[in-house]
Amino acid sequence: MRLGLRHVLPVAVIVTGSLLLVPVVEATAAPVVHARHSVDGRRIESRQRRVQRSERATGRRSPRVRAVARRRQPTRTVAGHLSHIVRSGDTVASIAKRYGISANAVRAANGIIDDRLYLGAQVIIDGSLAPLGAPSSMSAGQIGPKLQRCPLRGASFMNDWGFPRDDGGRFHQGTDMFAPRGTTVVAPMSGTVVFGSNPLGGTTFNLTTDTGWVIYGAHLSSTIGASRRVSAGQPIARVGNSGDAAGGDTHLHVGLRRSGSNPINPYPSLRAACS
């Protein structure tokens, strides 16, 4: 839908103590928001768009696959799991009604705190990411851990879980925390950190906590020390834009899951630890 001035209104949202976001909200469907992100509040969507452009520039997907991805069907099955692509007019309540689940289940599965939905984002239907035969408590709606430390104090971030990547061919399963290159990343919990690398994440770490969580960090510029046991708050890495984030804004991608389970949204845990 083409939006004119009569269709939109500014809404201010504080995401971190120093970051002011002013998303554009449709007046007829206030919970649906255009995905925006910026440190100064004036060009809010620029950083997320640059991240998406840098990832597309890797050229891993053919033009035919990209064309299919653009069709943006409202209901999708991704790797056998049910999800919904947010469209204009959607609300948490309307999505819940469509799939016969509770609104609280939708909120829990996607880390939704203020009922804001982002156009084009993927909303997981509660339980759809659980291993076959697993109880609903193992789903993407599982509550994350209480972090002992904020991994990147002063970073700007938002609830970007489910944001589209590769023109909607895949979706973001984590939280991007934006900070200048070289900013120190600390261990958010005590455990064992193992450093590695892969084409998407570049230089990475996996922190397996003493309580059974696995915290993944990606796009690092460098690591600090060797793989080892660490205490909460101990420096472990520095922010960068390695992997498929090359050329984009420097940031730390944070992923979260229970050991042996599927990813869940880390935003609620990060928000609590970093606010």
Give structural notes.
The structure is a single chain. The protein is an alpha+beta fold and 275 residues long. The protein contains five helices and 20 strands. The protein has a domain at 164-274: Glucose Permease (Domain IIA), CATH 2.70.70.10. The protein has helices at 46-56, 63-69, 92-99, 103-110, 267-274; strands spanning 8-10, 13-16, 19-21, 24-26, 29-33, 75-78, 81-85, 117-118, 122-124, 164-165, 170-171, 175-178, 184-186, 191-198, 202-209, 213-223, 228-230, 235-239, 251-258, 263-264. Mean pLDDT is 74; it is low at 1-31, 34-45, 59-72 and 129-141.
Question: What are the salient characteristics of this protein?
Answer:
alpha+beta; Glucose Permease (Domain IIA); 4-stranded mixed beta sheet; disordered N terminus
